[in-house]
DNA sequence: CCCCTTGTTCGACAATATCGAATGTCGTTC
DNA sequence: GAACGACATTCGATATTGTCGAACAAGGGG
């Protein structure tokens, strides 16, 4: 593990929507680094265009981050290919669409699209939830046994009215998900929220992410449910296809 | 300058739309690093979520890049606030909208939105052009004398039919741009392309970027021109306002 | 099943990041 | 307008840490 690289990553992560502009002192303090050390790393990051310094000697994220973002797989696919379907879904069901990935035992939300009138949900890009308590998480667990093992090792706790806390019951549900090709969650991580998720596969057939739609149960159950599931599965498949995955 | 941080940035930049998935060997070779060194850095980046390793031991960009991207100032503002106007403009004039920043003597395009039927333009996110030969570049030069000096030091060369190659003429045009609040470029960097650009200011009143619209001259000159300029200036102003800039 | 390619680990050396302090620069207050 | 204070930046010495070469492991193809 290379320390300075870790520190650099942490420095970049200091910048947020709440604090988009920071000085050296603030950065150093946040991370418990010596100002001098922080300064060296920050200068390097500026040179690379990852950060930018303004005339007031304050730093902000730079253009290079935007460039990197553009090269993340499925980022474009979502925006260019899947967006029409995604837009339709969120407008129709006043919901929110996420793309989620598995990382260090939990689910991370990496993309988020919602309509203005959608029911507010407490997720933002980079936020995490237990995998076993979300529709996206369950899809990820269903198609990757390593993820499942990591999750079991961490233990299952009660997150919402319907959270699955029994390992065998979870395994049974995951088998069901593999058979159907999608997962649902009904108030498993928070009250009164219904979610549906489908898997995104990479070129090698490995699951790398999940798309999901979350919204109020009333809109999403019943006959609408089938339509949502079909749309979501086709969205997921079209993204997978762009990543080079060939369905058997 | 911290070497390992620089190397880490270069490693991240190796990933592109053409090569979204790379092995350690490929990365090391691309950058002339020893595989062992590359491996250490890559492992660290994986640990931070900047890269991800799949079961085939291939690496790709990870979720953290998406998170960082979300914290870049004006990224959101463009997508949430300015997009309606931007969308209308590109559809109406079959053009392309960019956001550009100044970096190391040239202009870098950091965002790019175009309609499907727009005239193809050879720009992509991260691509560069001489500042004095683009509408965005000229705006950036007009409002920042440091940028201008850097540009002059590099020298002005002929890029298209109408490129400005005389420093005094350039300075005269920049004064004009400051007076009008926008810039135009007419086939200055490539044949038959007409561009209009407006400045984006940060909270401290410093110019940090420019929005521009590029398209075929036929659509954009004449009476349409005024409408485009007004829309573009208001787009730029609304982004500036979100960044905390208060107009005098 | 074996070979060959590719990724991963190991250990010693030397480069280099770190720390503390001193210097510089800006903005603010009296 | 001058002096203060807060902050960024530079400097230099030490020891940490990244680098390199080579040996090891794993995985895929013949």
From TrEMBL, chains A, B:
Domain of life: Bacteria
Keyword match DNA-binding: yes
Protein name: IclR family transcriptional regulator
GO MF assignments: DNA binding; DNA-binding transcription factor activity
HTH iclR-type domain mapped to chain residues: 2-63
Keyword DNA-binding attached: yes
Keywords of the record: DNA-binding, Transcription, Transcription regulation
GO terms, biological process: negative regulation of DNA-templated transcription
InterPro entries linked to this entry: GAF-like_dom_sf (IPR029016), HTH_MetabolicPath_Reg (IPR050707), Tscrpt_reg_IclR_C (IPR014757), Tscrpt_reg_IclR_N (IPR005471), WH-like_DNA-bd_sf (IPR036388), WH_DNA-bd_sf (IPR036390)
Entry-linked Pfam families: HTH_IclR, IclR_C
Start and end residues of each IclR-ED domain: 64-245
């Amino acid at each position: 593990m290379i320390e300075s690289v870790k520190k650099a990553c942490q420095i970049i992560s200091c910048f947020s929507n709440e604090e988009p502009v920071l000085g050296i002192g603030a950065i150093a303090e946040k991370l418990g680094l010596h100002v001098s050390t922080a300064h060296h790393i920050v200068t390097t990051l500026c040179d690379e265009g990852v950060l930018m310094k303004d005339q007031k000697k304050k730093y902000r994220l730079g253009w290079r981050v935007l460039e990197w973002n553009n090269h993340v797989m499925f980022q474009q696919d979502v925006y260019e290919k899947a967006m029409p379907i995604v837009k339709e879904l969120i407008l129709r069901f006043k919901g929110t669409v996420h793309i989620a990935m598995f990382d260090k035992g939990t689910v991370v939300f990496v993309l988020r699209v919602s309509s203005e009138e959608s029911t507010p949900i407490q997720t933002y890009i980079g936020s995490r939830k237990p995998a076993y308590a979300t529709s996206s998480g369950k899809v990820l667990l269903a198609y990757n046994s390593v993820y499942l093992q990591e999750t079991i090792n961490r233990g299952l706790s009660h997150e919402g009215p319907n959270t699955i806390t029994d390992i065998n019951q979870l395994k049974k549900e995951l088998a069901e998900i593999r058979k159907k090709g999608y997962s649902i969650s009904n108030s498993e991580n928070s009250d009164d929220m219904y979610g549906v998720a489908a898997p995104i596969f990479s070129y090698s057939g490995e699951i790398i992410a999940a798309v999901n739609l979350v919204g109020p149960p009333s809109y999403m159950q019943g006959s609408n449910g089938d339509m949502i599931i079909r749309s979501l599965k086709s969205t997921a498949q079209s993204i997978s296809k762009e990543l080079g995955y060939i369905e058997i």
